[in-house]
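Repro:
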Amino acid sequence: MTEHADTPETASPHSLYSNRYRYYVLALLTLGYVFNFVDRQVMTILIEPIKTEFGATDTQMGLLSGL
């Protein structure tokens, strides 16, 4: 049996990306998750001021927050 050195054609896909790039992608995904979470929580925090401002009923606010 002969041993072959990994060439770009035979290298595994994991060796093509540096650790810096992996952490960059992880940071972007984490940031996206945080924005998604905060976006959902803002409506809950502001539901009462919005309800008072527009004179909306609980049913209307429930429909709005369900969207």
